[in-house]
């Protein structure tokens, strides 16, 4: 499933910033994209969150992960279809980690706080 139907992101200066809190107390800055739009830096390595965003501004994390290559990871992501079925309409990306272990630390911090349904199991 994954990237079929993705379009290049337009108006990058208007990308909303979302801070996801971790169990450590850290606030992890993520950039929010429609799940139909490809981030302009999509070939990079970063953390990501599949999100259901409601009109009232409430956001629910459905899956939290990390990747060394976003495009390759999203090509056939095992949870993409499940996330769509649960109402995913955004993908949030965090660019702050500069290593595998840094990404794993952020992922663990967020997972312990939010416990998304698609990470359980």
List the helices and strands and how they pair.
Blueprint: E1 7-8, E2 17-21, E3 27-34, E4 37-38, E5 46-53, E6 59-67, H1 70-75, H2 80-85, E7 90-94, H3 100-114
Parallel strand pairs: 1-4
Antiparallel strand pairs: 2-3, 3-7, 5-6, 5-7
Protein name: GIY-YIG domain-containing protein
Name the overall outline.
globular
SSE topology string: EEEEEEHHEH
Biggest β-sheet strands, sense, barrel? 5 strands, antiparallel
Task: Report the CATH architecture.
Answer: 3-Layer(aba) Sandwich
Uncertain residue segments? 3-9
Strand order of the largest sheet: 2-3-7-5-6
Number of helices: 3
User: What would you call the structural class?
Assistant: alpha+beta
Distance between the termini: 21 Å
CATH fold annotation: GIY-YIG endonuclease
Average pLDDT for all residues: 88
CATH class descriptor? Alpha Beta
Protein name: GIY-YIG domain-containing protein
